[in-house]
Amino acid sequence: MDELMTVARPTPLSDAMLADLPEGVARPAYDRARLTPGIVHIGLGNFHRAHQAWYTHRLMQQGLAQDWAILGAGVRPYDAAMRDRLLAQDCLTTLIELSPDHRSAEVTGAMIDYLPIEDGNGALIRAMADPAIRIVALTVTEGGYYIDPATGGLDTTHPDIAHDAAHPDVPRTAFGAMVAALGLRRAAGLGPFTGMSCDNLRGNGAILRQVVVGLARLTDQGLADWIEAEGAFPNSMVDCIVPATGPAELALVREMGIADAAPVTHENYRQWVIEDAFCAGRPDWDRVGATFTDDVHGYEMMKIRILNAGHQVLANAGELLSVPTIADCMAHPAISAMFRKVQTEEILPYVAAVPGTAPADYLSLIERRFANPAIRDTVRRVAFDGSSRHPGFVLPILRDALAAGGPVQGLALVEALWARMCAGTREDGSAIEANDPAWPDLVAAARAARDRPQAWLEQAAIYGPLAAEPRFAEAFAGWLALLAETGTGATLEAYLQGR
Question: Can you give the residue ranges of the Mannitol dehydrogenase C-terminal domain (predicted)?
Answer without folding.
Answer: 295-477
